[in-house]
Amino acid sequence: MDQNAYIEQAAAHFRTLLTEQLNRQERMAQGSPAKDFSRMERIVIGLIPGDGIGPILMAQARRVLEKLLADEIANGRVELRDIEGLTIENRTAQGKAIPDEVLASIKDCDVLLKGPTETPKGGTLESANVAMRRELDLFANVRPVSVPKLGIDWTFFRENTEGEYALGSRGVEVPGMLSMDFKVTTDAGTRRIAKAAFDFARANGKTNVAIVTKANIMKKTDGMFTRICHEVAADYPEITAEDWYIDIMTANLVNPEIRSRFQVFVLPNLYGDIITDEAAQIQGGVGTAGSANTGSQYAMFEAVHGTAPRLIADGEGDYANPASILKAAELLLRHIAMADKADQLAATMYLCTETEQRVIMTGHRDGASCAQFVDYLLEKL
Ligand code: IPM
Ligand code: MG
């Protein structure tokens, strides 16, 4: 193909993308009311094991949920439902990030607990996470990080469906010459994540929200993100909205002089992805963090870490740490209006991992296995 043919093809592609994204923004602008879990007669929790260490961790998370929700399961208010088929083998065989029948069974649930899923580098298979966030419109990625002894209590509101992720597998290429990806920010998409962050701040007595972008460089997309966050902030006069650039914010998080003054963060997708790994590391590693992906109809809670192929290859999968998936389970319980059970899980985890520490995990054979740790946890619950 000559250069002009590439340009024509890319222009047509861009027209399609722009039309799709404008339609999406219009659908979002119409909005839909969020589910009220406290009034629901029946809540279906889908369990998606994932790949690698995922099934090992999920089997243990299931035991914890079975115990915490024993009464609700017995009287039919809650169902724990295993979702099959979201495996790298099935996804590769079908060439789909989420095979159709799996997506249908996912959509029959109200909330989901998900283990890590493998994403091949390169190729065309899209990340199952990214596809699920889009298919279920899980626009808010909420990641709490707390280190009480350092005075750290942060909650990140990462926009979860836009930015570099919206069209990440649909860029254009002129082979051997140039590649171009697209970054998308919409009015409705920004407004709803900003509102989620400020609502959280208000409901939890927080006084400060940091809006983190690179608006000095990404003038259109991040510029719009910042402007809309400030428009939303105007409805929350008791909360200070501060602008920060992502580069200096990554430095701030490791600066003991100032980091404890930050409370709530709202940021576009990719910056949120990066900085929440940094924050999780400050808390003790990505294995300790949980992540909530929430929308108005569905919510998915997941471990922040990956599938740990090295642990599996070394035959040490059984020693994988369930802290992150259990943190995700805690966030799930909070989301379905069962805060007392979430608190109970959090307090018992704290006892087992910080104070009593009778069973120690190292992530390897020389420590307790995931199942042994959960035996201990269940005994203390
Ligand atoms: C995360 C992960 C995902 C992301 C990957 C697995 C697609 O890093 O949840 O932070 O980039 O969002
Ligand atoms: Mg990430």
TrEMBL record:
<dbReference type="InterPro" id="IPR024084">
    <property type="entry name" value="IsoPropMal-DH-like_dom"/>
</dbReference>
<dbReference type="GO" id="GO:0006099">
    <property type="term" value="P:tricarboxylic acid cycle"/>
</dbReference>
<dbReference type="GO" id="GO:0004449">
    <property type="term" value="F:isocitrate dehydrogenase (NAD+) activity"/>
</dbReference>
<protein>
    <submittedName>
        <fullName>Isocitrate/isopropylmalate dehydrogenase family protein</fullName>
    </submittedName>
</protein>
<dbReference type="Pfam" id="PF00180">
    <property type="entry name" value="Iso_dh"/>
</dbReference>
<comment type="similarity">
    <text>Belongs to the isocitrate and isopropylmalate dehydrogenases family.</text>
</comment>
<dbReference type="GO" id="GO:0006102">
    <property type="term" value="P:isocitrate metabolic process"/>
</dbReference>
<feature type="domain" description="Isopropylmalate dehydrogenase-like">
    <location>
        <begin position="44"/>
        <end position="377"/>
    </location>
</feature>
